[in-house]
Amino acid sequence: MSEADPAPMKSVSRGKRVGLLATCLVDAFRPNAGFAAVKLLEQAGYTVEVPAQGCCGQPNFNGGDEPGARQMALSIIQTFAQFDFVVVPSCSCAAMIRVHYPELFPDDAEVAALAAKTWELTSFLVDVAQVEAVDAALDATIVLHDSCSGLRELNIREQPRALLAGVRGLQQKEPANPDVCCGFGGTFCVKYPDISARIAAKKMADLQTAGPCDALVSTDLGCLLHLGGSLHREGSELRVLHIAEVLAGMTDNEEAD
Amino acid sequence: MTARDAIFAKLRQRSVANGRTEFRYARDSFAEVSAAAPLDRFVALAIEESMTVEHLAGLDDVPGAVGRYLRAQHLPEQVVIDTSACLAADAFADSGLKVSMPPLRPDHEVLVSGCLGAVAESGALVISTNDGHAIANDFLAETHIVILRAARLFATLADLWDGMRAEAQGGFMPREFCLVTGPSRTADLGVPAKLGAHGPARVHVLLLGG
Amino acid sequence: MHVERDFASLSDKALHDESLGEALDTVASVMPLIRNQALTQLEDFAAARERAREVRDEALNRLDYYLEQFEAQVLAMGGHVHWARDDHDACTIVARLCEEADAKLVTKSKSMVTEEIELAAALEQRGLEVVETDLGEYIIQLRGEKPSHILAPALHVTIPQVIDSFNTHHKIERDRPLEDTDQLLAEARAVLREKFINADVGITGANFLIAETGGVVVVTNEGNADLTASLPDTHIVVTGIEKVVPTMDDAGLMLRLLARSAIGQRLSNYTSFFHGPRREGDTAGPSAFHVVLVDNGRSDMLGSELQDMLRCIRCSACINHCPVYTAIGGHAYGSVYPGPMGAVLSPGFADLDSARHLPNASTFCGRCEEVCPVAIPIPKLLRHWRTQEFSRHLRPRSERFGLGFWAWINGRPTLYRFVQRVSAGILRRLSVAEGAGRWIRRLPGPGAGWTRHRDLQAPAAKSFQAQWRAQNRDSRK
Fold it and tell me: Model confidence at A5, in pLDDT bands (50, 70, 90)?
């Protein structure tokens, strides 16, 4: 932890160990979001470790490859069992462990225990760490894209909004239909690129109903890469940020090389 | 092995065998709740769904009310009276209307009938084949004038089911009964829905008593 | 049941159909609003939904018992009950009943099961004239098309197209050309009136079967089901074995939720309950009343992981809220049951091989499950089919290989890191710096699916885990 903690975030579980499951997409495409997540958790008083880790198995699970998914899940279970909490900067990957690992391994107490202590980042900060406000500033207007997994599998809707509300100078706008899918859907977006693009086009039109914004923010990098890539193709100047980057005040180093 | 045997063999094998040998009766308790009195509620919903409602004191007022309604709608002053209206042709003697018994004819598309009752929560009339009601005409007439007695208003669907069980003739429901919330309509040619798809374009309720 | 396997070209055609796109946009924006409005009328929708689920499960868990009760009641009222193992059986039974009734003209109200078993074609082959009386179904019958939505079958047809079809098919002397929807309605009403009155047999579906009373419940907004059922001398009901609910109270709850979930109404305009043929002393009504109960794969779903899907009350809420359906419409699915519910049911009523594309055309956003009035876990069931497909090798080789490779390489961390580093390097060389980021506009091979419509942000030069290890963070503790 840094020597001078500027207004350390009040939290209830000081000293507990968190294992960060960075997720494959953050690992490869947005390391900055991983570091931002670590910063937020450390500011909340947790010790954070990033064990050598693989994929949670979601692409295989959703693709119907249960044996492959189980194989990958076992590795994750083994790696993360030791921690007090497992925190994931992604709703869909967190849901894979929290909701679907018990389906892959029914009546398994160890898996049930892991599922129960696995949390998406913003939900962890609000529901477990009970952080009241993050310590960050960003002079920008943003629109939040809700993750479908977050909304429907993990009951995550208010938590990101509550945390964003604490970012000094940040204005948050709502689109007309936040509940609608962006069209990413994991492998769906490459199996059915044209349909995915049409859904993305409708989503982007809906995001515009929020009014002029500087950035699009989400808990899920898959959605962000998909929407961000579509926006960039259109020539949009809208910045695309992972919520961890915003909450940790780390939006200036997009390319953490 | 008949098809029935084959299907039932599979069903018995696959149904969660919980030895059920009797019905689970549970009174429906999810009616839509309203602060308004049932009668007011029914009238409000009926109007919302494009029915029109006139309050009358009793059956004697019906012929006059029918005449007034047809004149106001600029419709030809002739009606077909269904048995369920409980009105003989001579009750209309002073009304100036031309009256006939079913069947409907293309130039006689105003029907006056009674009904079994109504359901306030749904804003629905209940028509049935009871009392010799030739129910098919209710779906053919261009204008359907329905005599509803206020005492036959059921607050909720659950109340309607209780009422129908109590009145079941020979232990059976009527050959047909139908909950009607308004004129016949379709959205297949666009929205807003158009009235008078196959059945009535107008449903006028004459509410007796209450 | 038949399923068209041409999803790729059908969905492509749909994406380029502007008027279809407009119709679907209207569905996507209006239907959720009116459903929501209607559900807020109920004090506790969540509790009502839970009870509705219970009602359906009660019937499904003891389906044989409730079907027996239903059958006994229908028989006691003088009706007949027939059992059909599959679509072929069902068509044969109905054809025989029509022959026994010496039928020439048959009217039909909308019934998805009759579409599923392709009944109209089977009867027409035997020389019968079959007339669809639901206006939407009538329109597509004239056009020789399949329905594109389970409640609004002519959703994809424009008004000019309807005018064109009426002009082509109606041999009518008109004093002026058909121009607007009022005229269309008046003409349809007149044409169909003649059919209603002259029909020898009327065929309806059933929204619900009530075991307590032997009642057959049919809902419409037009009233065409009643005219179909009541005017001819023979009424035939064709429906699935899963439609039974125990009591009238149960039916009332389901009807309350059906109308709200489907079209934002408290109740359908006409909610009809039919009980057997005409009785002694009746002057009207059919003298013959037949219920044909169709299995066609439903009993196989019972007692399996798929049983929950049998709770479906055909409200179409899932269809209206689906981002994929509202992008491509119903025809692209190639099945009379499109959208989320169709993607689960079609492999069950037809077979997984011919319907294999359907469970895959989903982003798993979960909105379908969220809006389902009987809480069917549709994404889970879609995943069930995908799992079946994978183990039965029904997926393309490239997909199997991709998933297999992903599982394999994740089991070899050192190799994974190496491949990750190398491919990140390659992708970064393919990328162009633009402002703060690096972007790739075109990827070859399997990546082309991504860059067809999107750019790809280049991966980081060094992965998060690599950077973390380099900073030796864990060892500082």
Answer: very low
Establish if A229 belongs to a structural domain: yes
Q: Ramachandran region of residue C308, left (φ > 0), alpha (ψ -120 to 50) or beta?
A: alpha
Interface test with C, best of A18, A148, A206, A224 (most C CBs within 10 A): A148
Residue C112: pLDDT band by 50, 70, 90 thresholds?
very high
pLDDT tens readout for residues B43-60: 999 999 999 999 999 999
Q: What is the number of other CB atoms lying within 10 angstroms of the CB of residue C353? A: 12
**Which pair of tokens denotes residue C207?**
């929204």
- Please give the model's pTM, rounded to 2 decimal places: 0.95
What's A167-228 look like in SS3? CEEEEEECCCCCCCCCCCCCCHHHHCHHHHHHHHHHHHHHHHCCCCCCEEEECCHHHHHHHH
> Is ipTM over 0.90?
yes
Question: Is A179–C367 a contact, with Cβ atoms under 8 angstroms apart?
Answer: yes
Are the C-beta atoms of residues A129 and A12 closer than 8 Å to each other?
Answer: yes
Distance from CA of B197 to the nearest CA of C (A): 6
Class in CATH terms, B35-184+192-208: alpha beta
Those residues whose C-beta lies under 8 Å from the C-beta of residue C302, and which sit 6 or more positions away, are B10, B11, B14, B15, C60, C63, C310
Distance CA A216, CA B56 (A): 63
Contacts of C213 in chain B (CB under 8 A): 172-173
Taking a contact as any Cβ pair under 8 Å apart, which residues of chain B between 79 and 138 contact chain C?
121-124, 129, 132, 134-136, 138
**Which residues, including other chains, have CB under 8 Å from residue B167's CB and lie 6 or more apart?**
none
Domain range enclosing A26: 17-128
Helices C413-430/C397-410 angle, 10° precision: 120
Q: Which domains does chain C have, with CATH numbers?
A: 7-299 (3.40.50.10420), 315-397 (no CATH), 414-476 (no CATH)
- CA–CA separation, A154 and A124 (whole Å): 11
| Residue A1: pLDDT over 50 | no
At a CB cut-off of 8 Å and minimum separation 6, what does B129 contact?
Answer: B135, B174, B175, B176, B177, C282, C284, C285
Helix residue spans in C199-247 (DSSP H): 224-230
A12 domain-assigned: no
Could you count the other beta carbons within 10 Å of the beta carbon of residue C464?
Answer: 26
Subunits in contact with chain A (3 or more CB pairs closer than 8 Å): C
Please tell me which of the candidates B13, B28, B175 has its beta carbon nearest to residue C279: B175
Quick check: C257 and C203 in contact, CB under 8 A? no
